[in-house]
Amino acid sequence: MGNHLRGKIQQLFPKWTHLRDQYRWERRWLNPEFSPFWKTDEPQKEILGAVASGWFPKNQAVIDLGCGSGEICRWLAGQGFAVLGLDYSAAAIASARRLSAPYPDALTFKIADLCRENLQLEPAFSLIDRGCFHRIAKGLRPVFARNIAEATLEGGHFLLIAGTFQDARVVNHRAIPPSNDFENTWRKYSAITSSSNERKPLS
Questions:
Q1: What is the CATH number of the domain that holds 77?
Q2: In terms of Cα–Cα distance, which of 119, 84, 202 is closest to 154?
Q3: Strands 107-111, 124-129: pairing kind
Q4: Which of 36, 47, 119, 164 is packed most tightly, with the most Cβ within 10 A?
Q5: Residue 124: beta bridge partners?
Q6: How far apart are CA 85 and CA 107, in angstroms?
């Protein structure tokens, strides 16, 4: 299917696209041999920097959006953070809970669709998205942004990461816009969120 046709389908049927993607991710996580290249115990340098600099303060909880099997959640727990991992795949959450048994007090995992209206998450100071936003149908991105804004405590920090891997399979991937386009896109959605909810834009 060509990129243009794929984009038109996503534009016309964002909810159907979202449900299709959810089904595909569930099938992937149900496969015990599923081992994507981005599934690593070593966090990206942006996460390392956020922790080392105190931008993510250790006395505040962290939410990992689209946590998958929880590898970054476990790393953060090892650094002393209380972490909530969210994913819309039940199979991913089941895997995360199983693999995270050594951290029963620091880690919580929940099934959550970040594109559901009025998700009403318990707010946290620090949030991470390592790959959800750029895969979400454009028609649902305002809902995602609104849910993130409502889940961020005032003055809190949201770390949005996309396209940081240099693997040949994602460099110049069609789903990941150039960094300046990406920043402008997020500012647009966070501005909409701020206006509609009378909240400050995400920092």
A1: 3.40.50.150
A2: 202
A3: unpaired
A4: 47
A5: 152
A6: 8
Q: Do 151 and 63 form a contact (C-beta atoms < 8 A)?
A: yes
Residue 25 φ/ψ, nearest 5 degrees: -65, -35
**What is the domain range of residue 15?**
3-197
Q: Which residue has the tokens 């964002």?
A: 14
Q: Is 58 among the domain residues?
A: yes
In a domain, 202, yes or no: no
Cα separations in angstroms, 9 against 20, 117, 131, 163 = 12, 21, 21, 23
The pTM (predicted TM-score) of the whole model is: 0.80
203 belongs to a structural domain = no
Measure the CA–CA gap between 82 and 118, rounded to whole angstroms. Answer: 24
Residue 141 lies in a domain: yes
Tokens of 196: 């509609």
Q: Which two tokens stand for residue 173?
A: 């991937």
- Between CA 38 and CA 40 the distance in angstroms is 6
List, run by run, the mean pLDDT of 10-residue segments along the chain (203 residues): 58 81 94 82 90 96 95 94 96 95 89 92 95 84 90 94 57 51 61 43 37
Q: Are 149 and 202 in contact (CB under 8 A)?
A: yes
Which tokens go with 48? 């390392």
CB contact set of 79 (below 8 Å; sequence gap of 6+): 51, 58
Angle at 132 between CA 64 and CA 8, to 5 degrees: 165
* Cβ neighbours for 10, distance < 8 A, ≥ 6 positions apart: 17, 137, 138, 139
